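Hello,

Following up on my earlier ticket. Below are the two sequence lines again, exactly as submitted.
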Amino acid sequence: MRYVLSVPGRLTLLLVVIAIARPALAAEPAQPGQPPQGAPPPPAAEPTPTPIAPAPDRPVPQGPDDGSPDDIAGMSHSDPDATLHEDNEFGPLIQIERIDITGNTATKTTVIERALPISAGDVLHSSDRRLRETRFKVLALGFFRDVDLAIHKGSQRGQVVIEVHVTERGTRVLNKLWFGTTDLSPGWGGADIGDRNLLGLGLAVGGGFIYARQGGLAGTRSQYAGELRAAISALGGTRWGASAAVTLVHGSEPFCAPRNGAPPVCAFHYSRVGARVGATYELSALTTLSLGLRLETIDATLPAAPITTLADNTPVAVDLHLEPGSSRVVTTSLGFDHDTRPDPILPHAGSLVALSAELGSSLLAGSYDFATIFGRFEHYWPVRGGHDALAIKLTAGVVVGDAPRFDRIYIADVDHMLTPRALGLVLSTAAPLAILGTRAEKPTYGDLGGSATAEYVFQLFRGSGKERVYGGDVFIGAGVWGLAERTDLRARDTGFVASLPIDLYADAGLRLDTDFGVFELAIANALGRLR
Amino acid sequence: MRPGIAALPAIVAAAIAGAAAPARADDDKPELQRMRFVERGDDLTVAIAPPGGIGKLFDAAAYEALGTGIESTVVIRIQITPQDSDEPIAEQLIQRSVVYDVWDEVYRLQLDELGGQKKFQVKYRAEALKWLSAIEDLPVARLAVLPVGKVFVLKMVVELNPVSKQTLAEVRRWLSQGAGGGLDRGGAFFGSFVSVFYNPKIAEADRVLRIRSQPFYRASS
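Thanks for your patience. The regenerated structure is below:
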């Protein structure tokens, strides 16, 4: 969800950002050079330089030697980024007799046991990395505030009992909040909520509902959409996960701009009922493969000959990319996701790669033969020692064949200054800002689209969480977006540059990571709706 | 968007950011500690006398955790830079680990420092803490890299039980994953997010200390 800010709201936000950013940017003032003789005196707060003392006649203390043959001499540590001794285990060899899980009142013990990288009977050093990882594997479930481990004596020498003590937390989530007003709908509102650990079973459930009141555009109607979802990230402790969702959409969609000369009816009604099932497989801790199947019925009441008018009042036919009456969409999909960002909320390092391909076919009893491929890549380079970051974000999609309207790339998918769809509902007819002066009539839906963004992120602050806030960043970005129908690219009646369906967008805002959620307040979306 | 509603996010942001502003200074500002620098052979060594040092890395909970049988690790990253620059002329990584042997009831330590790795054991927890936190005649640089007469400072970042970036990514990955199979495919690929939930965060280390020495220089002999 993207908040929309009015002019006063934006000014308030900018003042806040500037006020806070200034001291952050000046947090490490440069110190003047300070040679011991003939140089300006140090600042008042800086202590006077002291000379290095000569060596006293006493030896450097050494640790008591237990005579162990494990002693290894000569290891160099001049490189501060050197790998820690992950595989150089030490400490006693132990055998896990039993694992006790304590502190869980809502979460089933089996859910936690399945996440453990250790099990009873394992023989390992007490500094083994699997023991260190145990805490984080359990935390990665997302159900606990904290996890502590302890080793206790077992029934025989060398055997131990591992205690895993968890502190549970609330797992209810407000995923999205929709609200706003546009010419198409004078008011819309809705929310998406969920519970990531239903009944302590590790099952994530959620649902959303949005209602958008009818506006003045002829042919539209009040719209609503709802969705229910369920997902489990690890089936029986395996790397396999599963998900399912059902959706209902009762909408109306504009297909021409309301202007002089436009047809009296510029919208059509439709309804969609669909179900999706999916499976995921964790290739590694940071990489996931997903498979999906989608069944959907569309009922659309289409005008016999939909037309729109260009700026010069020339009427042109519109392809709504839907079968009149009832039709079916049946697809299979394959996805890949690799995310190495240590902090996905305020990323300053790492990268994200996401690819998705979907195939719809009459061979699967669908009414549409098409394929879609979407890709997303983000990479973050730390700047100023990780204090700031430079990011490149690329998204691209291609739709091949006779794809239904709702599976095509929508203009707000690529132009971030427009109102995005919510649960599939189109909520605005605002045209994109024409900054480059390229082709004026950009399509609302296309089969080729994408965006490229360069973003600079300033670290505003980092907190320990004691103030309920972990950190905040200010970001400034700009990029180019494009959306086209391939048929438009083949036939053009203007120069090459003027015919390109591309334009610029800019964005800036604030990202906050708090212990009650994560927030992104972006200006680009507001700018798009202030016209 | 009605102006009143529109200004709400900005006000919320202002309140959150304002409340968090003091945390920035607390977390990032290095603590100035008086250190004793000594030329010992070809090396520069450093010592910090109490009440300074890195002992405050261990609060009561961290001290108790030394006896749980799970490894505790202190990583000390040291840089020596000219006083007027952030470019290090010498760097050191020091790692000290301890694990309690529940059967022999001793603390087994492993120290990785300039000069090699050392493994030994001590009987008492306080003794283990001392070995983990002592900054005493610690070799930090070759004297050859410190020109006579030039002024330097030593910067030290000390972490208790640091977490690798990959582990952090793994722990927080669920935040960037959807709830599964929803309709908003466009949002997942192209959109941003706002979400309200109880959001515990795993820090990059249990505790971090940033320490800076007073300026120092090599006097000509």
